[in-house]
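agent> Task received from the user: take the single chain below, predict its 3D structure, and emit structure tokens. No templates, no multimer pairing.
agent> Plan: (1) validate residues, (2) run structure prediction, (3) serialize to tokens, (4) report one or two observations.
agent> Step 1 OK, no nonstandard residues flagged.
tool_call: predict_structure(input=
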Amino acid sequence: MCWPRFQENAARQVVRESAGYPYFIQEYGLELWNEAEASSISSADVEAVREIVTDSLARNFFGTRFQLATDVPLCAEYLRDNHPITSFEDQIDGR
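)
tool_result: status=success, residues=95
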């Protein structure tokens, strides 16, 4: 099996867009593995999966935490103000 290699700019972009969170990096890795068509992962590949990763995080990571926090307004406010992906609330609500 041929393992894909990351171009340096693509790897830096994943770390930057994931804010360095290991779980978010794993989500990028999963989607890049599934979607990349070449053996070298580029910035264009990262851009191509960005929306898929954002949607997945909105549903599977932020969604459950936000739903649990809605009973405690201060927790919900904290999540809104401190998450690295800026539109998860809109995606959860379908806006």
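agent> Step 4: summary for the user.
The CA atoms of residues 47 and 71 lie 35 Å apart.
agent> Done.
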